[in-house]
Every structure is written in C-alpha cells, then in structure tokens.
User: Fold 2-epi-5-epi-valiolone synthase from Actinoplanes aureus.
Amino acid sequence: MIGLETYRVSAQALADYEVTFSDDILDRASPELATCGNRTETRSRRRIAVLDESVNALYGTRIREYFEWHGLECQYVVLPPGEQHKVMETVLTVIAEFDRFGLDRRREPVISFGGGVLLDLVGVATSMYRRGVPHVRVPTTLLGQVDAAIGAKTGINHGAHKNRLGSFQQPAGVLLDRRFLASLDERHLRNGMAEIVKLAVVRDERLFELLEEHGELLIEERFQGSSPTGERVARQVLHRSVQGMLAELEPNLWERELDRLVDFGHSVGPALEMRADGELLHGETVAIDIALFTTVAASRGVLDDKAGRRILELLHRLALPTDHHLLDGDLLRRAMTDTVRHRDGRQRLPVPVGIGAATFLNDVSDEELRSALRHRRREAVPT
Ligand SMILES: NC(=O)c1ccc[n+]([C@@H]2O[C@H](COP(=O)([O-])OP(=O)(O)OC[C@H]3O[C@@H](n4cnc5c(N)ncnc54)[C@H](O)[C@@H]3O)[C@@H](O)[C@H]2O)c1
Ligand SMILES: O=C(CO)[C@@H](O)[C@H](O)[C@H](O)[C@H](O)COP(=O)(O)O
Ligand SMILES: [Co+2]
Assistant:
C-alpha cells in the first residue's frame, strides 16, 4: 500500500518464444510440429489445426498424415481465404470450433497453417478464448514468414478500418518452412517482397543489395533454391529479413514506443488497402506507401536523389505498384488523420535517409503529400 487509499499493482509479462527455421516440417521425421507449443508438464495428445482453404487443398493430406503418424488426435478447421474474411464473424466461427473441440486452457496448442490473414484472425480468437490459449503459427506465405507470423500482433478489420480490433499475443512458437512457398503464386511472392523491401530500406543495406541483385531470381525460383546462387541467396534473404524484423520488434514487442521503423510503408497504405477493397494486396499498398514517402524524403533533401531512385527502381524491378488511381488528396488526408490517432497524436512518419537508414518526420503537411503524389505521377515510367 502506498497511501491511505491507493494500492499499486505492478507485474511484468515476459515474452519468450522461438521462431524456428525448419527445412521440411511435414516430414514425419521432423519433431518440431508435433512438439511445438506444448510446454506444460501435463502434455495432451489432442490438437486443433486451423487451415487456409488453399493450404488445405495443397498440403492437407500431408498435414493429416503427419499428425496421425505422431499419434496426435487432431481436429481440423478449414477457413476460406481472403482479406474479406479477416473479420469478427470468422473469429466467432473459429471460437465455436474451439468450444466444439472442448479446448483445454494450456496444453492443447491451436496450430495455424496459412498466410497473414489466417494467422491474424486465429490470433484474435486464441487471444480471446479463455483470455488466451497457446497458438503455434505456421506461415505458408512469404509475407507471413518474414512479417505477420513472427511478432506478437493479432488483428481483424472492423468497419472501414484495417486491423482496428486485435491484441498483442506472443505465439507459442513459430515454424518457418520455405517449402510452402513453392506453391505460392507470383503475385503473392511479390507481395511478400514488399515487406522485405520495407525492412531493407529502413535498416539493412546489404539486404537491399541482395534484392537488387537477385530479387527476380528469388521470385522465379520461389525461394526454393533451384540454382546454387538461388539457394544461397534465398537462405540469406529469409534469415536477414526475420533477424532484422525481430531485432526491431523484440525491444518494443508491446509497442510502448510508437516511433516504429517497421511502420514504414504503413502510413497511408492501410487506408488505401481498405478503400481498394480487395483490388490491392497488403504488400502492394506497402510498396505504394514506400514510393510516396521516399518521394517526400527526396523532395525535402533528407534523402539523396540517387538513393531515392534506387528504392523506386527496386520496386519497379520487383513489379510492385508505386501508385494507384484511388490514391488522391482526400484519401491522403483521411489516412493521415487516422494514422496520427493510431500514433497517439504525432505523425511519426518513417522516411529513408539513405539505403538502410531512416528517420521520423512529424511535420508533413497535406500539401506536401499531395505534391509528392503529383511528383510521383510526373516521374512515373509509362508501362
Ligand atoms: N500481424 C502482423 O504483424 C502482420 C504483419 C504484416 C501483415 N499482416 C497481415 O497479413 C495479411 C496478408 O497476409 P498474406 O499476404 O500472407 O495474405 P493471405 O493470408 O491472404 O494469403 C495469400 C493467399 O495465398 C494463399 N496461400 C497461402 N499459403 C499458400 C501456399 N503455400 N501456396 C499457395 N497459396 C497459398 C491463400 O489462400 C491466399 O489466397 C494482411 O491482412 C496484413 O494486414 C499482419
Ligand atoms: O502490417 C503490419 C502489421 O499489421 C506490419 O507489417 C507493420 O510492420 C506494422 O506492424 C504496421 O505498420 C502497424 O500495424 P498496425 O498497428 O497499424 O496494425
Ligand atoms: Co505490413
């Protein structure tokens, strides 16, 4: 007690989880999937697995064979793919399945197989159910592997807003297996590349160079290492991306600090993504946002023209969009209003000051943004 009427409660939550690269998690000889997330002494042989519909079609048989071989009794829930399903209704469907299964509180990890959409929404369900049940994440998209799966954020869209509802929930474990990327279509590979470009621009010049030199090869080989160079670079790029992302996330996992470099690409992007209503993928809006704020930085002179050009050229080379017809002055203004609220009253706009280095701006006017947009359109390479 610190006064006559006041009791202070002070407790700390420890985040402690592992992100593990594994070469073939569905190989029955790999123990990771069978053991991941079950750290309690009273181990259970039951699991509930939530699968994206496409992942189920492609890998469902192998996943079922794996759990069966390991003597785990598993219930399967298959969810339809697509950002339009990242809503509360789907979360409640998942929760109804937990009830039907009779999910124990700690010893029966929920295991998710899918991209960022599925992981985000199952994350919401697992963080709410009994106020938190363990969740093992198995990302099957590039974007999932380098970003969505490895931090502590869960989220669903609500109203007109991206990720308006969600929670911070550390995963019980994350298993990264690039073999899943073999079946990913080219657009979704490029989409994942956008989050890698984001990270490279703000903190890792070497990663940026690797993308400049080998980005197209990586996409062509779907990160499967069909050539010796492709193999070496795929491993390097995935490891540098995950390592760099975790280095940004770990010291600020609960986002007490709102100046976040990994928000680069996400200042007006989320509003554009919602407005485009399925026409643009998440990573594509990240690319458009990167292009816009690179232009802001170059126009201000905090970024030299050569570096600015390299960033835009890399986006073009990776066939990522750098503009969209729905991006206009009105959208920019409304996006910034919401972003400032999300960042607690300040803009905190990450912008590059070189390749691999960034700063935050807090005084960008609506006119400056509109002017950057006009500038981008004048410079746009006709296709
Ligand atoms: N929580 C976070 O920190 C965080 C970070 C970044 C992005 N996100 C969220 O992630 C979402 C985007 O994730 P995404 O890009 O992975 O999209 P996604 O989950 O929609 O998956 C993309 C598509 O690929 C299909 N698919 C998945 N795995 C496949 C495979 N191995 N082979 C073939 N097809 C496969 C899916 O069915 C889907 O159609 C957005 O909602 C974004 O907000 C969250
Ligand atoms: O897209 C996401 C998370 O949703 C990440 O790629 C990104 O690094 C950041 O977490 C976002 O910039 C901020 O996300 P949010 O708080 O707006 O959901
Ligand atoms: Co993102």
